[in-house]
């Protein structure tokens, strides 16, 4: 069964590399390889599941036998990266270009690990930091507020122009989050990436850190709607409520300490900014009196009226004590 499944996987990889399965000799009406009903997308979703993984060394051996060199290694990982690219999109028209490095993928377990490492290989991953309270060993709680609460504290949200979906930045009161396209396969993809990180003691928690951070940000459909307005989240689901439910359910029963994530320092900065009263007062002033042109006109008119009233009062009092002779 493993040999049969392995041959099927390699044939899929070869067909995607060629650009067409007809180039491999399959007829136009082939129900699997030449189907136009989205079967390839469903196959990708099944193949990325943790319980469906075939050891990479078996796939390497099968492909090596086909090429006449059983000891050949590295080609399957390269084909797998190209095959699974469409699973992580940044928008409707393009797909994330994953990077492949033979040394980086050498000795990997299976295609899911290769795919995960390719996602993180797109750029330098910040190191995780454990935050310790002064004078004690207790870790700080890095739970952050939702989008709605952070906006009330004057924090702006902006789309970060990068394909590294996990590369979140916070500077000068602006939280920059890369664009993420959510589709029907996103839940399964993230669940399996989190499950892999949870099952390996020698694996980082980069994907879990990102999902937990987004879960903290999104508590309601209104949070999703605002992130969509900012160009940060685009989705093909039925409603914003489904997107909120997706993130809120992804990390259920997951053993995770956000203090040990690469976003710990950023979360601490967000909490410090949120706790400053001046930021809340300034944001309240902006939201209540400078949120649209009509309120701005009203504030200016009230200010002008106040100045005129004070001026009239001043001259009235001044004329009483110093009448014109």
Protein architecture, described:
- The protein is mainly α and 325 residues long.
- The chain folds into 3 domains: 2-86, no CATH class; 147-275, no CATH class; 280-312.
- It has helices spanning 2-18, 39-47, 56-67, 75-83, 102-105, 111-120, 147-152, 186-199, 206-217, 221-229, 240-250, 264-275, 277-289, 293-321; strands at 156-160, 169-171, 174-178, 180-182, 233-235.
- A 3-stranded mixed β-sheet has the order 1-3-2, covered by helices on one side.
- Helix 8 crosses helix 9 (206-217), helix 9 packs across helix 11 and helix 10 (221-229) crosses helix 11 (240-250).
- The radius of gyration is 28 Å and the shape is elongated.
- Residues 92-96 and 129-141 have low confidence and may be disordered.
Secondary structure blueprint with pairings:
Elements: H1 2-18, H2 39-47, H3 56-67, H4 75-83, H5 102-105, H6 111-120, H7 147-152, E1 156-160, E2 169-171, E3 174-178, E4 180-182, H8 186-199, H9 206-217, H10 221-229, E5 233-235, H11 240-250, H12 264-275, H13 277-289, H14 293-321
Parallel strand pairs: 1-3, 4-5
Antiparallel strand pairs: 2-3
Helix pairs in contact: 1-3, 1-4, 8-9, 9-11, 10-11
How many structural units, i.e. domains? 3
SSE pattern, N- to C-terminal:
HHHHHHHEEEEHHHEHHHH
Please give the number of β-strands: 5
- The largest beta-sheet arranges its strands as 1-3-2
What value does the Rg take, in angstroms? 28 Å
Estimate percent helicity: 40-55%
Helix/strand/pairing category: mainly alpha
What overall geometry do the principal axes of the alpha carbons give?
elongated
The count of helical stretches stands at 14
State which percent range the strand residues make up. Answer: 5-15%
End-to-end C-alpha gap: 113 Å
Give the integer mean of the pLDDT values.
79
